[in-house]
Amino acid sequence: PLAGKMALNSLLQRQLMQTIYTKALHDTSPSSVLFGPPHYATTNSLSSPLPPQSAGSPEVNGLAPSPSQSEGAGSTSEGEEMDTAEIARQVKEQLIKHNIGQRVFGHYVLGLSQGSVSEILARPKPWSKLTIRGKEPFHKMKHFLSDEQNILALRSIQGRQRGNITTRIRTPETGSDEAIKSILEQAKRELQVQKADGVGERQWRSGYHRGSGSYFQIYAHSLRLVESSQPPSSSSSSDENIRSILEQARREMEAQQVALEPVLKANSMAPTDLSLLGSPLSTLPYTPIAQSLKKPSTSPLLDFHSGVKKEMGEVAVSDVGVDGVPKLGRLSESGGGLGGGSWREHWWSTGLSERRGTGQPSVSEDAHSQEDSKEKLPRLGSTAPVAPASSLDYWKDWPSSESPYSQSSELSLQMPSGSETPQSSPLPSSSPLLTLPKVAKPVVPPLTPEQYEYYMYQEVDTVDLTQQVKDKLAKNGICQRIFGEKVLGLSQGSVSDMLSRPKHWSKLTQKGREPFIRMQLWLNGELGQALLPMPGQTQEITPKTSASCSPAPESPLSSAEESVKSQQEEQMCQASIQEPSETSESQPGTPLPLPLPGHAGLSIQEMVAMSPELDTYAITKKVKEVLTDNNLGQRLFGESILGLTQGSVSDLLARPKPWHKLSLKGREPFVRMQLWLNDPRNVEKLMDMKRMEKKAVLHMCFPAYMKRRHSSIGESHSLESGLSGSDLTQSASPQNLSQQQQQQPQQQQQPHLKKPRVVLAPEEKEALKRAYQQKPYPSPKTIEELASQLNLKTSTVINWFHNYRSRIRRELFIEEIQAAASEGGSPSARPGKSGGEGDNSCDGTESDSTAEGRPSGSEERKGLLESPNRSQRDEEGEAELPSASGTSRPRGGIIDSLFGIPESVSTATATATPCRNPKDSSLRKKKAANLNNIIHRLEKAANRDEPHEWEF
DNA sequence: TTGTAGTCAATACC
DNA sequence: GGTATTGACTACAA
């Protein structure tokens, strides 16, 4: 998987490293010798337990001694015992003193995660208890402490890049282009710092790192080589120098990209090609828009593409930077701000790269080439506030917050005074330095001085604030990771922690308050406005469509804004979803068109994000009806319309979750279905596709697929058996044939290597179900025992429990909805509502058919979903499982009693459901689910593993 | 690290 | 040949 992407990244990095290395060869400074080629030096430092100073950097300790340098930390030599507690203490002291976060420290100095740093600092193990590897961080810390320049340097990084740390941390250690970019950015920025601070390159000499994460070191190296090649006093030539290096790297990368061009092209053409098959876009074919969701197996090349797309946020900035250069230039040049003005200028200048010249298609290309290009380019190019260059007019009015510039300009409008300062920093006129397929994520600009002063000392109700944030995130389907990165420059974990356990304002340091201030600004609409999900992943965008009608950004009353926005979104979605349309052109300010992928409208993800609540049951019911009536298969429908496999479609249609239980991603298929249903012509188109599929000529074009999918049957099957989802939508065209065929050999080489699917024997399942009854959330120990008893892999047992819990839950949802519907709930969910589903309500759409309608299904669930009596029997039989019996005894009575509780309730609801057998699985499911719920909640509440300790 | 949601895809079933 | 089931996997959240 991701082979293409990985290969490219790897290639790019190698190119860059080579470039830097080549330059370094001409750098004869001692430091360069010290560090050697970045790549290898880091490897050495990794593999060697020796502290860096032993690698030959006497200058390090010879530098001005750090005030923080301790006796113990500074004087310990290799192999000598260290006072780990003291080192940790000193490090903590320095981190606090310089306001350096553990994350940054861990990343740049130790090559460890924040969590690990916290562990090490809070609970340093005695030296004697540490393994070689465990000692490594202490060596590094000691070294870090040995020279204050290290600390200052790190502080510099922290101070300047606060908000971008996540990017670095998330950067794969293998070295992505993001990482490269980060390094280069740092190098450039640091040059400024050095000039300003008069700090020589020696400060970086001590950048001792683990190789895999050694940006610090590489940075130092690139920095040094840059410096060594020109007078440090010459700012401009310094820039020139860096630029020259980067330009070279860029050229080389471009060359690589050109080499890959055909591949990219082939992929981007696919959607368009589909229309050649007589399947216009209006059929809502599943297109690469969701490629990020697709497995790479169908096409690594495509996946590469989607991988790039996944980084759209970054690309966005890049493109805006390019297309928006003139626009950005108009922004105020007043610099200054929290972290100083000059660096930010370079931040942006180096943080932005152009796409032009990379061979990427223009934004204004045929909208039908959509998805891929639409996601990456149109949005980007046209997001800039001025002069959208795209034919996708719609986007021009989306002052994307992907662009820090548009954020800035909005922000500047809102700030009381001097608000145009830091955030509206101009895009430097310097030419783009580096072109990469992906670009570093947009950073979160520091708070402006005005913001800082204005908010920092006003008490904030952090609980209320975080609640509002949570609500808004949930409402817009924004994930914590994106929010953290784009709004706060925090990791998902930090966001989660902060939102769930906000500290009291008075307990927060200034630094700790910053995220909360950002949250407030975000709620106010002062930071990038809204984050809305975007293709591939959630991203922020400023919904200009609603903004155009909503209060001006100057009046950021969050609630008002929310409500207005919400209303409008709903209206838009209603309109778009209810209005069958395939031709309407996107016009800003007008009701949104049917968001057909490939058209200039909203992407499906955006539609999902803005969609009003849909009746998933009604939709699936209707879809099943239509498919049945027209003899269309789940596979074709799923693969071409939903982008899902047949199995998923089956599952989806049989057990749709209620809308409110669905994640954003989970809602997408329903929105797609609804959109598909809106236009009856879509059915015909799908039928056309079906016919097309069967054409012999196409069949002949994909013999390998036939083999692959039906290796045991031969090649006599129809095409529809031989195309997977993206294959179908993307490759069913002559243009792609060669590509397909090229992939065939590879794909055919592997099948036998696949490990066989595990099939649990009925006894094993029964045993697992009994264990589940006893303990739906078994401890690792129990799992081990179960696996051992059943002679299964631990992972199999774990997976089984995961799956079983998940599936039980889902069935419960169905039951509940059904019960509610039968008692006067949603009419659409009421059985028998629309024609032809008298049976469906009790089978197709609902879970019963799968649960009981089949021998396997009923057997599958009986063991678990039993009546109290049966449950008791099961428990008796459970003695055969030591693990289960061990825990079941103390709980046996409890379980029974718990089984009894929901019984009456569920009986009532179950019997109230029409066309349902009173003795059907509903009752048992409810019981089981109820029980599981209760148990789990109790376990959670008690925070214990052993339920027998519960007190009732 | 653990739990959940969403899927895939092999394969069982009709 | 279509549909249902289900073990496994990935991403995300806590």
UniProtKB/TrEMBL annotation:
**Single annotated GO MF:** DNA-binding transcription factor activity, RNA polymerase II-specific
Keyword Acetylation set for record:
no
Where does it primarily localize?
nucleus
Composition-biased stretches (Low complexity): 68-77, 405-414, 421-435, 546-561, 713-751
Composition-biased stretches, type Basic and acidic residues, lie in 343-357, 365-378
Q: Where is the composition biased (Polar residues)?
A: 536-545, 569-589
Query: Region (Disordered): which ranges?
Result: 44-83, 324-385, 405-435, 536-599, 713-755, 821-900
Ranges where the Homeobox domain occurs? 751-811
Q: Which residues bind DNA?
A: 753-812
**What superkingdom heads the lineage?**
Eukaryota
One GO cellular component assignment for this chain's record is: nucleus
Alphabetized, the UniProt keywords read: Coiled coil, DNA-binding, Homeobox, Nucleus, Phosphoprotein, Repeat, Transcription, Transcription regulation
Q: Which family does it belong to?
A: Belongs to the CUT homeobox family.
- Provide the protein name: Homeobox protein cut-like
The species is Cyprinus carpio carpio
Shown portion of the whole protein? Answer: 462 to 1413 of 1413
